[in-house]
Amino acid sequence: MRSAVRPAVGLASVVLLVAAVGAAVVMFRGDVTSGVPITVVAPRAGLVMNPGAKVKMRAVQVGTVASIDQDPNGQAVLHLSIDPEQLSLIPGNVQVDITSPTVFGAKLVELTAPAQPSAQPLRSGQVIEAADVTVEINTVFQQLTAVLSKVQPEKLNEILGALSGAMDGRGERLGQMFSDFDTLLARLEPGLDNLSHDIDAANVAAGAYADAAPDLIRTADNAIRISQTLVDRQDDLDALLLSAIGLAGTGSEVVDGNRQALTEVLHLLVPTTDLTNRYREALNCTLAGLVPIALAPPQPDPGAVVSVSFTMGLERYRYPADLPKVAAKGGPHCADQGLPHLTPNTKPPFLVTDVGANPAQYGNQGVLLNSDGLKQILYGPIDGPPRNSAQIGQPG
Fold this sequence. Notes:
This protein has 396 residues and is α/β, with parallel strands linked by helices.
């Protein structure tokens, strides 16, 4: 019986040891805890990016890479498994970088919180685009190999020899140059925003110049033709300039000899020109009113056509109140009365001025059927005083 117990105890010990190691492995891999799925889309996953890669945030592992796929557009799709306990600590607008701690080390997914993290945490099933993928050493070697394959060794040797000869013994000067260049960059750094704005504005200006380039080229072409014309006709141009010089000399003699007379003439013309300038609207009305007459067709028969008729009498002339006077004020009244172009069936209003005649000054309504003028025309001169003494000074 004892011989059977000891092997059973040994077997149980081995089974327990294997179970403990297996449980530790499972717990280390995270197979026991179900993670929250998150999808990351990147242009490429890079080398040494395998399932089980770590997902870190602030150097703390918060999950692993469950699997890696490829979408129809050729982009890499990383399916992450995030620890549910860490999910609430990750903001929803988190940024993702695929990086490597060393040059040849395995890739990992680095979560970086933005400057202004959102209040909403990362949610299950959210899709995030990777902001950056670390450049790998094999990519650098591939690009360097492509460049070196195009370079001829003998020319590269000449270039390196020339650089070596140019830098030999000039280390101090080169160091001073780099120091001065660093100082210059330090001074330019505060103005980088303005420089960026100027570059953007220069882009707009360059676009405007590009749009106007055909017109500028055409202008330059025309300028070339004008210059060629001046070269071809330089003899005529010299003759013109000589004639202009001679005319200027003659004109100078005439003006110098009659300077006083010309000055007096100009002074005498000042009142006339001022009056003409003041009444320019009335002159314009007069000339514009004569245009229809000037453009009208001629009369069928030579002579003048007049219309003669009897008109209603107005207030009689009275002396000395109706003597003509030149006392009108206020300047020209033309445009404000609709002249020179009047609307059909209209007439300009009568302007009352102090010129010695005012048909409305005695309350006359403008039409007098019993006037002396009509009596004189019908019956001839009538002697004697008015028939009604109460109407002295009024029409008979």
